[in-house]
Specification:
207 residues; alpha/beta; four-stranded mixed β-sheet; 8 helices; 4 strands; 34% helix; globular; iron; metal ion binding; BchE-like; S-adenosyl-L-methionine; iron-sulfur
Length: 207
């Protein structure tokens, strides 16, 4: 990883066998740094052959109408933000959707909620909190040729009609006993952008 880091910011990885970034290269609690496309691009440079060439090739050639990114861990955030910019640049007409625990934490801990989409500038829609029903609602709206409407757990980028105001976001915690078990066998795994097939599994709320 130290050798790989020479393609971006030498010594940027905190450990020799992981993707954690050191605090010296980026402060992941800084709105200014997370909003800096040049810094994000430099930190992502070790993975540029995949992120900027291989990753967007399939959705661009297939004409994806919706692309979703799940940001689960804090260490994924800088790379995911750059990934979002690359995808939006290659597929400007696609609806770029982001969710996941780290995306929710950005909203939760951001003092000035109006700056949320400064950080997620390339993102069209963000699901904050639980996304089971919200994700389905977004896809149904897209299937009708419409933009998602502001609803529980959903924030729209201002360029898509959102406001970014905290008081307009309602959070919904669903009754998990009423939600059907996911039919994983029906998921179109060939459409997933991950190099390896995997399934998120959460046995309960929280960790």
């Amino acid at each position: 990883m130290d050798v790989l880091s020479t393609q971006g910011m030498p010594g940027q990885f905190a450990t020799g066998d992981g993707f954690d970034l050191t605090g010296e290269c980026i402060n992941v609690s800084s709105t200014e740094e997370l909003s800096d496309p040049e810094l994000l691009a430099r930190l992502s440079a070790p993975f540029a052959p995949y992120l900027e060439e291989e990753l967007p090739r399939r959705p661009a050639s297939a004409g994806y109408d919706v692309v979703g990114l799940n940001i689960t861990y804090r260490r994924q955030l800088p790379l995911a933000l750059h990934m979002a910019r690359v995808i939006k640049d290659r597929l400007p007409d696609a609806l770029l959707l982001v969710g996941g625990t780290e995306a929710s934490d950005v909203w939760k801990y951001l003092e000035d909620k109006r700056r949320f989409f400064d950080v997620l500038a390339a993102v069209d829609v963000c699901v904050i909190g639980e996304g089971k029903s919200a994700f389905c609602d977004i896809l149904r709206a897209r299937a009708r040729g419409e933009l998602p409407q502001p609803s529980a757990n959903v924030q729209l980028n201002p360029r898509r009609g959102g406001t970014g105001r905290r008081e307009l976001l309602s959070l919904c915690y669903e009754n998990t006993t009423t939600i059907p078990t996911p039919a994983y066998d029906k998921l179109p795994s060939h459409l997933y952008l991950s190099p390896h097939r995997f399934v998120y599994y959460s046995p309960s709320r929280g960790c």
